[in-house]
Amino acid sequence: VLCISDNNICMDLERFMGLKSEIPRAELMVIPMAQEVRTIFYREHLEEIKKYSAVFAVSDYYAMDFIQFLKSVGVSVPTDMSVIGFDNVRECEKFVPPLTTIKQDYNERAAMALQMLKQLKDGECGGKNILLPVTLIERDTVNDVKLHKKVILVGDGAVGSSYAFALVTQGIAQELGIVDIFKEKTEGDAE
Fold it and tell me: What tens digit of pLDDT does each residue of 63-118 get?
């Protein structure tokens, strides 16, 4: 699994580390922010990108942009490559194909932010990290990865953090058979 992000810090790093905690061989590709430059970057790295059967984009906009690029070079989503975004923006449902994504509860997030601001104002708030639950929104950009055992297991690396995202990632991985494939691969013959 390849994760695409325009940076490797803060929230994007947490999302990647959550993915990596459940799919240890996931890799991060830092992409340019500017759309035209990003398209050139994707073209220059196309052969590397094609080694992966699944891509997690740290935002829905990057996921949709990436899918558009894949279409332009003849790579079919989800037949050739699965793509998942993050945020569940309105455009996800209308995008072709409709984008599978991870949704945050924005009302809960806003309420927590207001509560923390009040605590900060009252001198009660320390530097704490709050993890909010997320939900997988299944649409049409994810294929049954069980058919692509050898392609999934690319790269290497360490276990990460971000528990809430890891729980959703674990659900995605189990649903797609990635966790079982990894166990099967490590218990069997190495390639």
Answer: 999 999 999 999 999 999 999 999 999 999 999 999 999 998 888 888 888 888 88
Q: Which residues, listed in sequence order, are joined to residue 180 by a DSSP beta bridge?
A: none
Amino acid at 71: K
Instruction: Indicate the helix (H) or strand (E) that contains 150.
Output: helix 149-152
Element (H, E) at 29: strand 27-30
Going through 43-116 in order, the beta strands assigned E by DSSP cover 54-57, 82-86, 100-104
Cα–Cα dist 149/42, whole Å: 24
For residue 54, give both structure tokens: 């699944």
Q: For 99, which DSSP code?
A: P
What's the count of helices (H) and strands (E) in the chain, helices before strands?
9, 6
Cα 100 to the center of its chain, rounded Å? 10
Please tell me the distance from the alpha carbon of residue 106 to that of residue 135, in angstroms, as a whole number: 12
The CA distances from residue 191 to 24, 149, 168, in Å, are 17, 12, 29
Higher pLDDT, 19 or 172: 19
